[in-house]
Batch of 2 targets.
Target 1
Amino acid sequence: MTARRPRVPGVALAAALAMAAAPGCRKRAAPTVDDAGVPFAVAPADAAAGWRHIEALAGPRAFAGDDTALVAALAVVADDGDALETYYRAVDAGRPPEAPPASLAAVAADLATWADASGSLPDRELDDLDDGIATHARDALALFRAGRAVLAGTGRDAPDGVGDVLYLAARMRIEGRSLLVVTVGLELARSAADRAAALGVDLPALDDLAPRDADVVHALAAEALFSRALIAADRAGAAPSLSAADAAALDAGWRVALDGATLDDPRDQVLERVRRAGAMPAVRRVKTLDLGGMRSTLARAYQAIDAYRDAAARARAAAAP
């Protein structure tokens, strides 16, 4: 096999360098505005103040309730999650099987016990970047499967399962340590409201535990802290996957994404800040986290809130005398 020829032969390269050095020939300037024509964002100089603000938006992580019954439910899901998912998908498609999986009764009972006791989510310790991401993805899927299966098995005559799942979704939004867990909680809340509408039942929990736009800002702040903790753990390891420059870029990007944010911010303002943070050149070079792509995740979260409100209204209308 012959060696590949260089893309620019030496003579052509020398000519190109000579032309660049010629009077009136200037090196192309780096862009100063993003794709929307807005000047690139610059992170506030006071990083400590920025992170204190993000911590305030995320709120205290209060894992004060007992998680024993929920952990038991998740253990059942770990063993029989595929069967539970097949069951709720069949119910969604209008083809319910003759009987639910035997494991559903245990999941529903454990979830009810946990909700009645005002339980909390399990508080997982994070060892490193890969472990933290994998653990939260696994937990989010298990929580979703548990909730969806319980909803599928809930009937009009005994609708308490809807309230139990609404409580689970609320704890995911409040205590979820990552954007993934919070947004899955929003989807689970929407599913619970859909089930209430299908059953024609109106529950106080539909109002008391309803998701709000503020949950999205909270979720973004929680994700920022989650990312920061994982990056710190990664950088402290023997073979960090992120360079110091990449870690600094992500630190700055998060502070731009939440600079001056409040829980009451309009949706377009929240999304625009994230877009600007993701457009920062240093942030765009980091492939570990697509901060710019997170904008679409937040937009879907807002859509889930709107869908929840529509479904809750349908449930109230269906239950009205």
Target 2
Amino acid sequence: MKLKEIVGKQIAENCDSIAFSHRGFEVLEDFDRYEAKEDSLKSFLRARIQFYRMEGKILFAHELAVILKKIEEIDAIQDALEIELKHILRNIKNENFLSNGLWKSQEVEGNEKKKKHLEKVW
């Protein structure tokens, strides 16, 4: 395989990685929409807990509070994972973008040499 083919293949692979990273960010945006629904559910549960406490239904309010606490624990873990995933995707995208810049600068350099050579010939 010639160097030009290797460089072309590497640039194509990097572009694929950049595209997959971009898609990952789109998926996380969808995830964020569900976060809003989850926040709404937590607010609803808090209101119900308060309502049932005021109604004197302490046991039921306590059961709802246990459920809410578990949802909040899961949410905190998901939030941390989302932050880490965004960091990973951003790094993949940036590293491949920088790598393509290095490869393309070599390609341009080679084209300039060819252009100068052709100018001499003509």
